[in-house]
Design goal:
- The structure is a homotetramer of 422-residue chains.
- Chain A has 422 residues and is an alpha+beta fold.
- Chain A has eleven helices and twelve strands.
- The first copy, chain A, has a four-stranded mixed beta sheet with strand order 10-9-8-11.
- In chain A, helix 9 packs across helix 10.
- At the A-D interface, strand 3, helix 9, helix 10 and strand 8 of A face strand 3, helix 9, helix 10 and strand 8 of D.
Chain lengths: 422, 422, 422, 422
């Protein structure tokens, strides 16, 4: 099983909290697509991205397949042609529509996807009281799965709209952009020595977050806040994108071949947001940067990226429910840090690239069956990000959470926090 | 000027016929997209194809730019961001949205495109009575231009829907499929010697159809009807797709690299139509074949393709308004030839590949200005097709009409008629 | 049979002239590779080019296969692994080494290829007196085939050496570069009306040069000489490479994607020759230009390319043995026209792009068997060049000769002669 | 500085040992290319590989640039055009010939490269007694650098020859192939707890091997020997290449796109060796496998790859001069393990993929200047291999050595040793 839910959390499930969270999560997805037209929701702007409608349908497929089909006697699929269309990458679930062609699925329509959702939600509601613990754990997994897709839905739509010369806004609401004097970054010393990290069993976690194990940390410090747009502009002004010695070899090749000279979505002093083109806020965290850029910035700054262990050790004591995260369907864009003490913006705001390659923890075993494909098979070539972003649903974050992307990818709300050896 | 309209046809323009044809043509485009959702109309399934909405908008751009903007004092553009989005390939009209990314333009919406149409149609209606002959000639050109895009709209939607595993139907109406015994093909001797061909000034024609000039034809015969699906099946059964000696070198490379083993849209005894998957009708003309396939079939049959001159000489005496052409928004699919005398299905049904490379006639000069880019600049690498198809609007065809595509392209309703030397 | 040799030429064959020409041709190939190292002769600088050693071996394979193997009883292949390596594109001769990987064949060595040549030459010498007419015709074809490869060998080596920053010279001998005042181009009126063209049976010709047939020519004139480098410089200075309206659509796409701004091998006022980098001679014919460039230049000059028929009609009366052609192993580079009357440099100097797509003449039938793949299967997408170049072996040219390349290719000694309608 | 040479080793340098090792290393490179023709030594069979001549020249460039040019007053470059040609990837040394086009450098010839070597060797010999410690450290680095290229030279030539249908042998000497019953693999328990690893300063090491630092190891065991060809055949027979659940996601994509179904160089029960095609020895270590294959095999075997730390901890006590390594120019091919106790074949035979991504050790700093580009900039996307192979020069190995390649690469002598948790 890919998720870990202990006896204590089972109590919570039984008392209706799971049903409420399920309903909240399912409703948020619908709210997020509310501003979108059928065409908006069906287009795919690059192979890495998926149409919003596809996200709606795929998360529904997940519940229908792993909960209703597998655990509810007599359940019949809403449409037996849909699994082929909306399976993402589960080899154990059979062949599927090629990922780069998701944008060609103009049918079923957005409304039809909503009907499917309603059908599955109703079936889940009926089935929930009688589900086995194993099935309930899959419901829990499905909620977290859908929360991940909510964030992807937002970043995918942002990418699509940014390709459109009209620069459409998802929400017209202006984003407050207080151009504050950004506070000086401070160094906060981290813990050193042998410490225990990784998920240990209390509450939900993805399989890759465990097992809990001991790690040896060397003396180090973390920056009090993420790097800001103003600091990033200094990097640009200092020739950061033209100095090969700052870059990893693959990163330099990427800069050259893609003609990269700024974070994604920057153009002429503005950046593209889900509310359209806006002036760049120098005090806000820099975002939409690749691992390659984060690493080059750190080299330029005479620092380095934190390891995922350094990050987790520092975050363990902080409240994962705090910070700039996704609460409802409204514009998301990282804002400047408020306050001036301790580690700021560890949760929410921007995902933070770490220097750690995404590999299994000692003793890791992927779950058997299709859901075992959730995390383990992606453990090559990617880097770990920690923390969460302004587009991550609140409640989805925790100190042990391991997000991962390839080092050139930057359409997520990705940023960096500097670290250094002591 | 890209079109040729003589004094006699001007009389027709003045009496309102032009206004009626304009209205008919503009309305047909809207009828064609009526069954489409916003998403259907916005998706692009390959670089060669365009979204249906794009066709609606581009044809509107053509009238707004070349008639209203250039010839109507005081006309203001509906939206001055649209020309960048909906110029196709007119270099003289400035930079434009990259063709392969037309499917990312989910905005303006299909409804917004319809509003633009209504706005432009109203302005055209007001302006028409007072337009100069030069402007009227551009209206005439715009009608023919839009008719071309109506055919493309149908073939592009067909291509899109064929990629969808659900196999959506544009129109549910069943296509009559009378599996008749197909009649034996006969050879009809053609004219030989020096004859005059090409457009000579009477009525509308594209610039590339002229000037009228003399051509020397050698003794030859044309097949009485196009090659049928049943005959194509014999070619397949005889190993046609596995016999390199039948193929042009580039054609064989294409067969190998694309793993081609049948006309486009064939699968397991069925083909995809605008009404969904249907049983293949052995008596209907084979269609969705490339020039390479047409040439290989002719080699296999011990024959050859006609030249465009042989075709035109034979067609000159026939009625271009006859045959299976597009009259209104309804399923299109080539049907079996009816009757048994003379040359059948020369106009309509399927475009017929000729053996003639698309090159200028002696004395050809492209028109000055942007509309001069209409035809002349495409005169390399493509082959001429003659006749028209079931998806060509009736009234758009004539004996001198020169259609052209690359030899590997086959998403149009393309077929072939055999020829031989005598 | 791909070649056409009538009874009269058979007399010549019998008297030893064929043997002498065979020996001369075979020796010239060896002379051409004499300045090359084993590495020079084995490298392949692009998919279109072949290693010099491969040319030596392939021409030997041609004689061994089609003459010795097929017509000499008891002949045993020198090495039965070689046909797989050195068959070029004859599908009927079975599978073969992939063309883009010819440069990986460092074995057999250049010396081994020479040994194979010697072996085959000896066997041919012994067999020649007793060969049947059919076999003798294949020897004749083999000679012309090898002459073609001699020209390719030179242009392929030139391409290879041009990629080397050391700019190696094939021959150190300086090329005379008399910067003369280039003579004014004159227009020479051509024949009009119905005339007979194409090869008619007297002497050797490739199959695609016939059959002889009647063509209708419209009134026109040809330029007295090819376009010069000085004129080409004017085209560049006038923004020729930056003006899309001058270009065919495919040509403009090619200019953009390849960043073309001058003929191949031009750099900083010099061009690369088989004697290394040299100052550009403004009076010499412009060469290493694509069809796209030739066509754009003609548009810029208010003229057009000649048709292949106009060219042939004009050339029929001229001596194909005259002009700047390849006599022995020495530097080749087109020189300025000498003299001032009539049509100059029709044969030799540079191949002249015509406006004619390479398609079959009326009544053309490719020969049966493998040698039938020589020409006919290439009749799509390519354009005809006429005349011959400074790298064409003298004796290989004739008025009916049809060379052909794709419109973007320019590593041959290609140029253009303007034409216009009268 | 990229290398680390302490005071103790400096004593060795001063007494002539360095000069002797330099001479030995330089001579071995020449011996390795002795069987190669000029063409063999100049060809490049893929972007990842380089011509043998290029290796000869590049290693010479390294000494000429970093020792002679930078540390020997008055030294003049042998040919000032060569640095552009033979710089590999040192951005600080300026622009350079594009890597994929190394095979086009047929000049300078193999003999000219040898002359350059002789010139540089003589200059090094004269300069050596008077070199500064910094310069001597660069000589030391140059020796290790050249040893790396000796291994690459062998694997690159092997790749080239394997593309040739003639299957040329570098050395004809037969490889002994005793098809022994392969011994049962045993599990050897490794150390657990906090241990010190990484290079600590005694003797030469590359910068990436340090600094020495503490690592926490969990209880585990290593296999007594690498996986054999016989075991690999079982993996194949059991459908290993057809079972997606065994593979990392990127690995499965690679298997599909490259149609991988066996280690590189396997065909019909044989594999290609530097002595040509040979029967596969089931008892010899499996080699020419990618990380993806190694990982999938481990999954299939119910085990995992060792971390680089587990490997190093186990290797620390073993003799790095033992085992199957490169001593002189002769056939190299991994042989079956001899003996039956302890950890076998840890050094030599095959490089062993570890599960560790190639990332910096805590406190790592790349050296300033061009030689700082040696290792640090490659720390993304690659995996660490440990141990050395039959093609690694003896003396080049040590327990701390970190080799690294991308997970799909397999033209090196790469294999795997299983590990498991205890």
């Amino acid at each position: 099983m890919a998720s870990k839910t202990d006896a204590k959390s089972r109590t919570a499930l039984e008392d209706g909290a799971l049903a409420r969270r399920l309903a909240t999560t399912r409703r948020l997805s619908l709210d997020l697509v509310a501003p979108l037209s059928d065409a908006d929701a069906s287009a795919q702007s690059m192979d890495d991205a998926s149409p919003a409608k596809w996200h709606l349908a795929h998360t529904t497929w997940f519940f229908e397949t792993f909960v209703l089909r597998d655990h509810v006697a007599g359940y019949r699929l809403f449409d037996d042609r849909f699994p082929y269309l909306f399976n993402s990458y589960y080899e154990a679930e059979g062949p599927r529509h090629a990922r780069p062609h998701r944008g060609l699925l103009t049918r079923p329509s957005l409304d039809a996807a909503r009907e499917w959702r309603a059908h599955v939600d109703a079936a889940l509601g009926r089935a929930l009281p009688g589900l086995s613990p194993a099935a309930l754990a899959l419901v829990e997994l499905g909620i977290h799965h859908e929360q991940q897709h909510q964030e992807l839905l937002l970043t995918d739509i942002k990418h699509l709209f940014a390709q459109n010369p009209l620069g459409p806004a998802m929400w017209e609401t202006p984003i407050a952009c207080e151009v504050a004097q950004f506070s000086a970054m401070k160094w906060i010393e981290g813990a050193a020595g042998v410490i225990s990290l990784g998920h240990g069993g209390d509450g939900f976690a993805f399989d890759c977050e465990g097992p809990r194990h001991e790690v040896l940390l060397t003396p180090h410090a973390l920056a009090s806040r993420p790097v800001t747009n103003g600091e990033w502009q200094q990097f640009i002004d200092d020739g950061g994108y033209e100095t090969p010695s700052l870059w990893l070899s693959d990163g330099w090749a990427w800069v050259q071949s893609e003609a990269v000279d700024a974070p994604a979505y920057w153009r002429d002093g503005q950046y593209f947001t889900l509310s359209g083109w806006r002036d760049i806020d120098p005090a806000a965290p820099a975002t939409h940067i690749s691992f390659f850029e984060a690493d080059a910035f750190a080299s330029w700054a005479g620092a380095r990226l934190p390891t995922e262990f350094e990050w987790e050790a520092a975050a363990a004591a902080l409240d994962p429910l705090g910070g700039d995260q996704l609460d409802d369907a409204a514009p998301v864009q990282p804002a400047a840090a408020v306050g001036d003490t301790g580690l700021q913006q560890m949760f929410g705001s921007v995902w933070e690239w770490t220097g750690s390659a995404y590999r299994p923890f000692p003793g890791f075993r992927a779950a058997p069956g299709a859901v075992g494909e959730y995390n383990g098979k992606f453990m090559s070539g990617q880097f770990v990000l920690r923390g969460g972003s302004c587009a991550t649903p609140r409640g989805h974050m925790r100190a042990t959470y391991r997000n991962f992307f390839y080092p050139h990818q930057r359409w997520q709300f990705t940023g960096l926090r500097l670290a250094k050896d002591l």
